[in-house]
Design brief:
The chain is α/β, with parallel strands linked by helices and 238 residues long. The protein has eight helices and ten strands. An eight-stranded mixed beta sheet has the order 3-6-5-4-7-8-10-9, with helices on both faces. The radius of gyration is 17 Å and the shape is globular. The two termini are 31 Å apart. The N terminus is likely disordered. Pathway: tRNA modification; N(7)-methylguanine-tRNA biosynthesis.
Length: 238
């Protein structure tokens, strides 16, 4: 996942430009990924337009919608969609092989409740998603930018938390997960300071991995090596 911050300044502190949350990356497609994009995009692909989606038209039904930012290769997103057919799922990913892999897996699994963007996440959120329309937003294992001087590049910042809050319904949840404890502390600090949210953790910190988030192969390997993963879930209350 390739992230940059929401603002960038030069050495004199002058604002340079609005930064995209992600850089679109084409990557080298396998034949299977290319074929999946060609065959599945007409039914599962969402072409970006700067006007809010009509979710009822997109999915052909009224249902709660879950949006995932940066789904990687898409395996866990497809699994979630398969295991929760009563929900609509939208995934956003900038890495084209990941989009192809996700579409291939979704087609193989017979999933019909998933739609995919290959586009910049901030643009999609700002312009293509109506305010108050999402039941859950998922951000799993974003780039931690672990060097202290790069912390400002982390996607979870006050401005981003407010954008997500606007897109959630009242009662909707922003669910984050990271395998970097320092980033979980950063997320907690940002979200505790954000208006209109309530932490779903009983002790005001992190939550156990909920059943709806599948355990990834990477994560399972990390568990065996004693590595931690931290989940945070914040509900929109205002």
């Amino acid at each position: 996942m390739s992230e940059v911050t929401t603002a960038e300044f030069n050495e004199e502190g002058k604002y340079l430009r609005k930064i995209r949350s992600f850089v679109l990356r084409e990557g080298r497609l396998t034949k299977g990924q290319a074929q999946a994009i060609e065959t599945q995009w007409p039914t599962m692909g969402l072409d970006y337009s700067p006007t809010p989606l009509n979710l009822t038209e997109v999915f052909g039904r009224e249902a709660d919608t879950v949006l995932e930012i940066g789904f990687g290769m898409g395996a866990s997103l497809v699994q979630m969609a398969q295991e929760a057919p009563e929900l609509n799922f939208i995934g956003i990913e900038v890495h084209k092989p990941g989009v192809g892999s996700c579409l291939s897996d979704a087609a193989a699994a017979g999933v019909t409740n998933l739609r995919v963007y290959h586009h910049d996440a901030m643009e999609v959120l700002e312009h293509a998603i109506a305010d108050g329309s999402l039941a859950r937003v998922q951000l799993f294992f974003p780039d931690p930018w672990h060097k202290k001087r790069h912390h400002k590049r982390r996607i979870v910042q006050a401005e981003f938390a407010e954008l997500i809050r606007r897109k959630l319904k009242i009662g909707g949840v922003f669910h984050m997960a990271t395998d970097w404890e320092n980033y979980s502390e950063h997320m907690l600090e940002v979200m505790n300071a954000a208006n209109g949210y309530k932490n779903q953790s009983a002790d005001g910190t992190v939550v156990p991995r909920p059943d709806h988030r599948p355990l990834t192969k990477f994560e399972a390997r990390g568990h065996r090596l004693g590595h931690g993963v931290w989940d945070l879930m914040f509900e929109r209350i205002a």
